[in-house]
Amino acid sequence: MTDIIQLLPDHVANQIAAGEVVQRPASVVKELLENAIDAKATSITLVVKDAGKTLVQVTDDGVGMSVTDARLSFERHATSKIKSAEDLFNLHTKGFRGEALASIAAIAHVELKTKTEGNDIGTHLTIEGSKVISQDPAVVPKGTTIAVKNLFYNIPARRNFLKSNTVETRHIIDEFHRVALAHPSVAFQMIHNGSDVFNLPASNSRQRIVNIFGSKTNEKLVPVNEETEILKINGFVLKPEYGKKSRGEQFFFVNDRFIRSSYLHHAVASAYEGLMKNGVHPGYFLFLDVDPHSIDINIHPTKTEIKFDDEHAIYAMLRATVKHSLGQFNIAPVLDFERDKGFDTPYEYGKKSPKAPSIEVDRDFNPFKEKPKQGNINFPFERARTSSVGANPSWESLYVGLHDEIETTETSDPVSIHQIEFESEEVTGNLFENDKSETGQVTFQLQNKYVVSPLKTGLMVIHQNLAHQRILYEELLKNITVKEAVSQQLLFPLQLNFSKSDVEIIAKIREQLEHTGFVFSELKGENIEISGIPVMIVESLVVNLLQQLVYNIKEDLPDSGFSQNDMLAKSMAASMAIKTGVSLNSEEQEHLINQLFACKEPTVSPGNKPVFTIINLGEIDKKFM
Ligand code: ADP
Ligand code: MG
Q1: Are residues 184 and 78 part of one domain?
Q2: Domain identity same for 154 and 223
Q3: 87, 189, 472, 604: which could form a disulfide with 45 (CB 3.0–4.6 Å)?
Q4: Ligand 1 centre distance from Cα of residue 73 (Å)
Q5: Where do the MutL C-terminal dimerisation domain residues begin and end (predicted)?
Q6: Domain shared by 235 and 195, yes or no
């Protein structure tokens, strides 16, 4: 047999390598910003067009490249940052693989202008799909500008795979934040489609955080400082009361490199134990400095995961340090009358290991139990009760005609609604009331999670959270698409403070939100003022709802109108729905069931999970055989 193995041509190898390094425009942003940092820039400008799909350009005032280096920088495994394998364990730069520029040049149109300090004339290089098109001398300032145009122009499949501009921009901003947070002494600017998105002067770490996340952030920060032989920790954690339902600002940097680590996250989260309700996440900006010899960055191609030699020690130290800082901040006089005295740590405890602070947390918090603050606020169930009478067919009408269905269709689907035959079928008025008089209660709650109702043919087990999501989802979707706002006017408008970019996100969906009943009287800069909210929500849930919405949108907001509405309704329903763990009285259980079966699709949740299941008598009987 003849030999069949061939070496791939370089441009093909580069394209394949590019798949690892460049997933989306944000990957290009990350690589170019990091190169500028490695080049010791003091000022960096990022220009983006069409969420980076048309242009990503980074200009720095760093050391620049010589004519030869400029050309070499686009070769694979060409790097000025390491020379031998040992250097891998003593890294002081962001880059070291020498792959980024080669990968980017394989899948885009790239233009490079660069000049070093000592030279009068710089160089201007153009490359398309790994091919050098031109290289000419050019009069340019010291430093480097790299423009990456038409990303994935030669890989249409990858280009089509990119998400909406909102999502891709979000990813770019995330990368920009990470690099900017790690290097506060460097000035950063970001321009998107011609407008200034960020303008961050050289400053310190606290200032940088505030400049990025908004002026109100300052008062939320608790400083964290600790130095031991193996680890230096600096930075800030957010006071427990600013925890978010969604994972918001959570940043770890190790030797100025942003990393993800669920292990370290756990260390921080556990330091907050007892200070936050379940399901609320702490925010933090933590900078860890360790000996470069004690970590391995090489395990992940995009370098956001690293391996520590002494993970356990780092975990323990991080946890203790954060706990200590949280305890310390609380001795400072704050206007917090509900503060638990046991939470205070005297100053002289300074060097002792801190005791876990504790705050009373109401684990049975039930938003529906809250008393309305204003006469016109309706709670979900209250509203359900009033609005569904007459308008919506309730429990009873559900099985009017059910007889015929059961007689004519012999379906074997275990959760088919047509099989449901209710125990007290003969009752004509309200099923539950009549039944209660005889048996006390017809439904009951299991683990504050399920509502269980006996049927003639077995037991129906309803997932309370998923059921309520379904109810709210249908209602919200109707409001958004039919555009009928049902709003409750607030006596005192809600003043909320979000980061500038989050306010922009909310501004984008303002119209849809107004259809659900929100009335925004201001929506600019970092400020949101709300003078009306949907009737189906309580005021105290608004902040969480908006935070969750922004989070979901950052994750994925489809471009098209219908699916956008759908996503909004889903996401609002998810954050408004009664949660697992909330106890419901029998009346509330009853209303939940009535409302659920007035829905168009009661069997599945908006996220496509089953809402209830039926355990047939037959199945129960089998257990006793
Ligand atoms: P790496 O950063 O891993 O070395 P890259 O492909 O990102 O690999 O860059 C290759 C080389 O090009 C770098 O090692 C550096 O010498 C040079 N280079 C890239 N960007 C810049 C820049 N903005 N300023 C100066 N030199 C740069
Ligand atoms: Mg690099």
Answers
A1: yes
A2: no
A3: 189
A4: 6
A5: 442-584
A6: no
Mark whether 218 and 150 lie in a shared domain: no
Q: Is the CB of 509 under 6 A from ligand 1?
A: no
Indicate the residue among 328, 344, 364 that finishes a domain: 328
Q: Which of 87, 78, 138 is nearest to 114 (CA)?
A: 138
One domain, residues 81 and 140 = yes
Q: Give per-residue pLDDT as tens, 411-466.
A: 334 434 444 444 333 333 333 333 443 444 588 999 999 999 888 888 899 999 99
351 located within any domain: no
Residue nearest to atom 25 of ligand 1 (CA): 64
CA 458 to chain centre: 41
Is residue 189 located within the same domain as residue 232? Answer: no
- The ligand 1 atom at the shortest distance from the C-alpha of residue 104 is 6
Q: Is 402 in the pocket of ligand 1 (CB under 6 A)?
A: no
> Is 257 found in the same domain as 112?
no
What pLDDT, in 10s, does the model give residues 29-60? 999 999 999 999 999 999 999 999 999 999 99
For strands 43-49 and 55-60, give the pairing. antiparallel
Give me the domain span that covers residue 99.
10-200
- Give residue 226's pLDDT band: very low, low, confident or very high (50, 70, 90): very high
Q: Which residues contact 375 (CB under 8 A, 6 or more apart)?
A: none
CA of residue 149 to ligand 1 center, whole Å: 18
Show the tokens assigned to 615. 């355990």
Assess if residue 558 is contained within a domain.
Answer: yes
- Across the range 525-532, mean pLDDT stands at 91
3 state SS of 384: helix
Residue 330: count of CB within 10 angstroms of its CB: 20
User: Distance between CA atoms of 62 and 113, rounded to whole angstroms?
Assistant: 12
pLDDT of residue 303: 64
3-state class (DSSP) for residue 162: coil
Q: Is the whole model's pTM more than 0.90, yes or no?
A: no
User: Could you tell me if the CB of 45 is within 6 A of ligand 1?
Assistant: no
- Cα 548 to ligand 1 centre (Å): 38
pLDDT, tens only, 172-203: 999 999 999 999 999 999 999 999 999 999 99
Q: Considering 328, 345, 367, which residue would you say is the last residue of a domain? A: 328
CATH number at residue 324: 3.30.230.10
497 vs 508: CA distance, rounded Å: 17
CATH number at residue 570: 3.30.1370.100
Alpha-carbon span 487 to 477, nearest angstrom: 15
How many distinct structural domains can be found in the chain? 3
Q: Report the chain's C-alpha Rg in angstroms.
A: 30
